[in-house]
Amino acid sequence: MTNRFIDVISKAGVLLFLSTMVCAQSYQLVWFETFSGTQLDESVWSFETGGHGWGNNELQYYTSSSDNVFIEDGKLVIQAKKENYSGKNYTSARVITMGKKTFKYGKMEARIKLPYGQGIWPAFWMLGQNFSSIGWPACGEIDIMEMIGGGTNDRTIYGTAHWSDNGSHASYGGKKSISSGIFADDFHIFGIEWDETAIRWFLDGEQYHVIDITPSGLSEFHNEYFFILNVAVGGEWPGSPDGTTVFPQRMEVDYIRVYQEVSTDVEDEAVPASFDEISVYPNPFNNQATIVVNSERGSDHLSRLCIVNLLGEVVYSDKVKLVAGKNKFSFEAPAGLNSGVYFLNLNSGSKLLSTKIIYLK
């Protein structure tokens, strides 16, 4: 999670600090999932299993088997396989936070490496927490990211909202393609920013779609929602796999982060620093290390530097002032810090970076 003086990305809770004058709204990290254990945390996640088509005539059977869903190198892996299981020709997995972690409004994002191929349908999405009592689409659905694989489809993702329009299904979606390669080549950040007025979709920090949710007919989008991660095989939208589809296919999830707006005191309209890179050396380190931050511009605005453990607890916090160019800070491990893996987080305004550090006592 976060390294001692500068890790700004969000694998740990980071409180935004600014000295007092004007009250402003800014995002604060309120929950994150880094998949740092040896298996999925069932206090947060539940497995949905079955092979009934899931409303889309899908072809897979979702299991809780470690062949289909597991933790590997600090990442959640959902793996679709071609195999006979309970009358289906494919297996995969679907995990949810229903009844365990729900959110209303905020910035939600995940860093994911997608699978590929005809008939492969990965998704990172949300359903209204009242789904079990009022059903779909009345509960509302926010698809943060979906991709239907195969050919040029492997380079295009979709963001969509679904709701009930007087008892009928309504939806409004957008899409975004990358200019080269496919989404299976590397990790990308898929996210939304959702508030009382709109939902905005982002790919790697660039907005590509928005929906106005102020009309009374879209009241579904002002409730609590839970997360879903899954890889479907086949179905009405992607169609079935064919001879070009390679199995197994994997969706790898590095992290999920949720930020929500909080009131913060800010120096009179100070412009936050804009940084794009953080590093720590040596890493692993013993008692002392050097933190280097490259900043596009400096600011009188103080940035918050935190070290966070794997439980998300802040074990060190400080304020730093960044100048344009290369910033170097000497860091000494606080007394009582135990050997282990941490995250260093740096936060300025709504910008957050994070890097993993290893402390050896």
Average pLDDT number: 86
| Structural class based on helices, strands and sheet pairing | mainly beta
Shape: globular
Order of helices and strands: EEEEEEEEEEHEEEEEEEEEEEEEEE
- Cα separation of the termini: 18 Å
Q: State the major sheet.
A: 10 strands, mixed
Give the count of helical stretches.
1
Low-confidence stretches: 1-25, 263-270
> What portion of the residues fall into strands of 2 or more residues?
over 45%
**Helix content percent band:** under 10%
Number of strands: 25
CA radius of gyration: 21 Å
Provide the descriptors you would attach to this structure in a database record.
361 residues; mainly beta; 10-stranded mixed beta sheet; 8-stranded antiparallel beta sheet; 1 helix; 25 strands; globular; disordered N terminus
